Structure formats: structure tokens, C-alpha cells
Amino acid sequence: MCLILRKSSYKRLIVRNILVQAMRDNLPPGRFFGTSVGSWRVGSFELSESVYAAHARLRPHAHARAYLGLVVRGAHRETAGTQERSCEPATVVFHPAFERHANQF
Known about the structure:
By secondary structure, this protein is of the alpha+beta class.
């Protein structure tokens, strides 16, 4: 009986970890990595401001909604499939919904 419960608990833990990983890799609408310093909404338009630590690396992930990214200060490199972009101040990048990409700050 104890062995069956352990196996069952272990399987649930694995499934939970897979679901948590999937949620991390596919961010829900309005969610971004980094530290959120502000969010504003006007009708269906939403503006979010986030800051990222120097040398931070974000593994491949996707966002549920399309968005425009604007670099205000600092820089980062972004990889989407086989494309690599260098993003410096005043760079604007369009990301279609569910585009998998990684960032290095």
C-alpha cells in the first residue's frame, strides 16, 4: 500500500513539474519575465514596463499574445529560431503570439 501511494505521489509530482515548466515557457497574457515596474491599460491596449538584471539569460519561451518590445535603456540579444537580433536603445521588435525566443541581457 505504501509503495503504491509513493508511486502515485511521485507521478503527480512529475506531472505538476511538467505543468509548471509549461507555464513558465508559455507566459499568459500580460506576463513577462523581469521585474515589473509599471502597467497601464487603455481599452484593449496594455503597456507593461519591465527591467532585467545585467547578464540575465532567459531560456526559450513564448507569450500568449503578440507584443511590441521597446528597449529604453541597456541592451540585449534575442534569439528566435535561427534569427538573432541585437536590441539596443530605441529598438522596437514585434513578436507574434507564441513565437519562441530566448533573451540574453
